[in-house]
């Protein structure tokens, strides 16, 4: 069996995954990516596994997972006994958090829409319902 020798530069990996070079270095410092092999010149050298892992990290971030949660997901992905169940639990928790944020954003949107609708857009600032709502503790949006 022939083992693949890492041959991708950090720039090539960054381009293939669609992330900045500094992002790759950051993930290495944070322990999300293993330290790459070094060429004789000292430059980093990556294999396909780094591309796969970076895509995983990027997609998990796109779904709202924090770096700590991504670290857990990466560890769980190698756990053949409880990995899938634990991954699902993490995803369910993330989904609940996102649904809570959406509900809060909808509440904020509705309050702001009400203020915008009630403001004539002209007149004295002290009569502006938006400015009054922002400056008055008792008046809620």
TrEMBL record:
One of its GO terms (molecular function) is DNA-binding transcription factor activity. The keyword Transcription regulation applies. InterPro entries: DNA-bd_dom_put_sf, MerR-type_HTH_dom, MerR_fam. Residues 88-115 form a coiled coil. The keyword Cell division does not apply. Pfam families: MerR_1. Residues 7-76 form the HTH merR-type domain. It comes from the Bacteria. Keywords: Coiled coil, DNA-binding, Transcription, Transcription regulation. SUPFAM superfamilies: Putative DNA-binding domain. This is Heavy metal-responsive transcriptional regulator. The lineage of its organism: Bacteria, Pseudomonadati, Pseudomonadota, Gammaproteobacteria, Lysobacterales.
């Amino acid at each position: 069996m022939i083992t693949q020798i890492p041959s991708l530069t950090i720039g090539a990996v960054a381009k293939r995954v669609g992330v900045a070079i500094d992002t790759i270095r950051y993930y290495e410092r944070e322990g999300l990516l293993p330290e790459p092999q070094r060429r004789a010149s000292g430059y980093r050298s990556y294999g396909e596994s780094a591309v796969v892992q970076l895509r995983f990290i990027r997609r998990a971030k796109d779904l709202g997972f924090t770096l700590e949660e991504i670290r857990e997901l990466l560890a769980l992905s190698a756990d053949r006994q409880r990995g899938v169940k634990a991954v699902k639990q993490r995803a369910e928790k993330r989904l609940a958090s996102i649904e809570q944020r959406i509900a809060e954003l909808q509440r904020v949107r509705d309050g702001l829409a009400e203020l915008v609708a009630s403001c004539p857009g002209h007149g004295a600032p002290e009569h502006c319902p938006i400015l009054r709502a922002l400056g008055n503790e008792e008046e809620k949006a």
